[in-house]
Design a protein that fits this description.
81% helix, transmembrane, membrane, DUF3618 domain-containing protein, transmembrane helix
C-alpha cells in the first residue's frame, strides 16, 4: 500500500482502472466496505459518543457555568421523568 492509497477511503473506487475485471473487483470491494461502515452500529455509536464527549469537554472548558447549568437541567429532566414513570406505575 502506498501513501496515496491511504488517502483514499475504503469505500471509494480508485480511478484509472481499465481492466473490466479489476474494475468490478474494486467496485465490489468498495461496496462491501461501505456496507460494513454503514452496518457497524456499535462502532458508529462509539464514534458519535466520543465526538459528543469531546464537544462537551470543550464546552465545559470554555463555559463552566453553562456546563454546570446544563448538567443540573439534564439531572432535573431525568429526575422528573423517573418521578412521572413511578407515579404512573404506582396508580
Amino acid at each position: 500500500m502506498t501513501n496515496s492509497d491511504s488517502l483514499v477511503p475504503r469505500t471509494v473506487v480508485p480511478a484509472g482502472i481499465v481492466d473490466p475485471r479489476e474494475s468490478a473487483r474494486a467496485e465490489l470491494k468498495a461496496a462491501l466496505a461501505a456496507i460494513e461502515v454503514k452496518g457497524n452500529i456499535p462502532r458508529r455509536i462509539e464514534k458519535a459518543s466520543t465526538r459528543g464527549i469531546a464537544k462537551a469537554r470543550v464546552f465545559a472548558d470554555r463555559n463552566p457555568i453553562g456546563a454546570a447549568a446544563a448538567v443540573i437541567g439534564i439531572a432535573a429532566a431525568v429526575g422528573g421523568l423517573v418521578w412521572v414513570i413511578a407515579r404512573v406505575i404506582s396508580r
